[in-house]
Amino acid sequence: MNVGILNYDAGNIYSVYNLIYNLGFTPKIISNKNEFKNIDKLIIPGVGSAFRCLQNLKKNKLFDLLSDNLNSELPILGICLGLQIFCERLYENGEANGLNFLKANVQKISQKNKFNIGWSKVEFKSDELNSIFLNNKDFYFCHSFSIQELDKNDQKFLEGYIKFDQRVIPSVIRKNNFLGVQFHPEKSQVNGVKFMKYFLNI
Amino acid sequence: MSYIRIIPSLLLSKNKLVKGTKFKNHEAAGNPVSTIKAFESQKADEIILIDIDNYNQSKGNFVPDLNTLKEISKETSTPLTFGGGIQNLNIAKQIIENGAEKIFLNRSVLFNKLNIKEFVETFGGQAIVIGLNIVNIKGKLKIYEKNDEDLYRYIEKMQKLGVGEFKITFVENEGTKKGMDIKICRELQKIISISCIFEGGIGNLEHIKYLAMNKISSIAMGRILIFNDYNIFKIKTFLKNENFNVRI
User: Is A73 annotated as catalytic?
Assistant: First the structure.
């Protein structure tokens, strides 16, 4: 199975690449729309700042590629910023329009603590995820912007969250063919590998 | 409540790990890949790895050891901060691309050799760790590499620019196993509003407990893990038994 990894200049693509490879799949790095061929699943890594990354996505027509594959048969996993770009509007280092697939905005995580860096216990709402991560739900987070509250009609897509400074931070969102996580499975040791296996259906 | 982070802090020189005392007399400390794999299995919360081969910034075209970084990211999935002698944005990009979550910067920022704002705009502040090597000169805290810089003003400036974390290393304690000066840690923690990793002098479990009791929640260590019979799991179990919140 070919697993595409979107390269939009500022992602830790080789961490994701190596994890996919080590699980026995064929990772393929996709840097422009033409390289998107025979891809069975797509992963969008994310270590970067929203404004510039969205510019890169648009420049290389990768934004269109994602747009074309919303609500399709292609399973997509968005990680951190790779989740946030599916929202309506993002405010990191300048305002930018996201893919508008999730009705929510991406803003500063909190006025008090500017960053959430470290491991957190994720509260899962889905039975399936609860059963996979029965004894240990710790995942690695590293972000300063996060999805604000999801629109009422989109609340049903929320499958996991953490609490940070007394507010809920959406951490797992599933909508049709899209699965997005605020944490970094590629940096979450044993749990991260488990999560990746879950996405890849093994 | 968030977890206490236990962070092995490792130095890299010519593809090998090394460890010194007070920033001098570095001795061999093993293979980076197998060492980091071991720390991962012991549930290290993060790893900091710094290439010291261009510490004095004498090599203008220096690139830190990306091959070792690649080897590490092939075999591990622990959050990694990588740095040492980074002189431009392009090298930082390659570091993130090859599997580091965060970039460690020190001298190049201190001596204004790169535009930190550009780094924040490219990678986000969460990916930038600023190193502060601290010495105590006649009762005043100074930056080791640049005594005439006002430490407090520098901290303020970095925070305003939007960096994500500081790693504070007490040079005179480094490698000595004599513990940290808790008063100084608390003083710095009070004026710093972002997360702060403290390092230098951890020599036994009581040292770590003492930091945890004083709400120092991000603790980096080298010698105690590399040359002694302490592993991270043992440290974390100890802290858990003392009712601190650790990830096991």
Answer: no
Task: Please name the residue that has the structure tokens 């069975």.
Answer: A40
Interface of B with A in 57-96 (CB under 8 A): 70, 73-75, 77-80, 93, 96
List pLDDT tens digits, range B89-123: 999 999 999 999 999 999 999 999 999 999 999 99
Residue A39's nearest CA partner among A3, A77, A75, A76 is A3
Classified by CATH at the fold level, domain A2-200 comes out as Rossmann fold (3.40.50)
Residue A7 and residue A11: Cα distance in Å, rounded? Answer: 7
Where helices occur in chain A by DSSP H, the ranges are 13-22, 50-59, 62-68, 81-84, 127-132, 189-200
Residue B86: closest CA among B122, B126, B130, B31: B130
A53 is known as an active-site residue: no
Domains in chain B with CATH codes: 5-241 (3.20.20.70)
Q: Residue B55: what pLDDT? A: 81
Q: Is B112 on the interface with A (CB under 8 A)?
A: no
As for the ipTM of the complex, it is: 0.94
Three-state DSSP class for A109?
coil
Concerning whether A186 is annotated as a catalytic residue, the answer is: yes
- Any chain A CB within 8 A of the CB of B124? yes
Q: Strand A145-147's sheet: what is its strand order?
A: A96-97, A89-90, A105-108, A145-147
In Å, how far from its chain's centre is CA B151? Answer: 18
Q: What was the pLDDT predicted at A110?
A: 86
The answer to whether the beta carbons of residues B103 and B127 sit under 8 Å apart is: yes
Q: How confident is the model at residue B60 (pLDDT cuts 50, 70, 90)?
A: confident
pLDDT digits (tens, 9 = 90+) for B20-35: 999 899 999 999 999 9
Q: Could A14 and B70 be called an inter-chain contact, meaning their C-beta atoms sit closer than 8 Å?
A: yes
Instruction: Provide the residue ranges of all domains of chain A, joining segments of one domain with +.
Output: 2-200
Annotate B62-118 with three-state secondary structure: CCCCHHHHHHHHHHCCCCEEEECCCCCHHHHHHHHHCCCCEEEECHHHHCCCCCHHH
Mean model confidence pLDDT for chain A: 94
**Bridge partners, B186 (sequence order):** none
Determine which one of A80, A92, A143, A159 is catalytic. Answer: A80
